[in-house]
Specification:
94 residues; 3 helices; single chain; mainly alpha; 79% helix; rod-shaped
Amino acid sequence: MRKINILIFMLIVISFTLEIANIYLSNKVTSNSIYASKIEQQIKDLDNKNQILKSDILNYTSFEMISSRAAELGFVENKEYITLSSPLDLAINR
């Protein structure tokens, strides 16, 4: 009779311990899942910002943008070209 009581007590303690471990692990998985979803949202936001920045780069490096910015800064197109009829001495000596 005493062995049966000890066995029942041990089974109750083991089941209680396993239930507490189950609750702890479930809570841990939930908190990790929330953290992972926040990181995934940050990744999506950064991807969107990268796409916007890529389009801005393409816009700012386009020929139309560069030429209009050059006109704003006072650059003008060169109408006459300078050509050298004979090579420079420095170029010949090298």
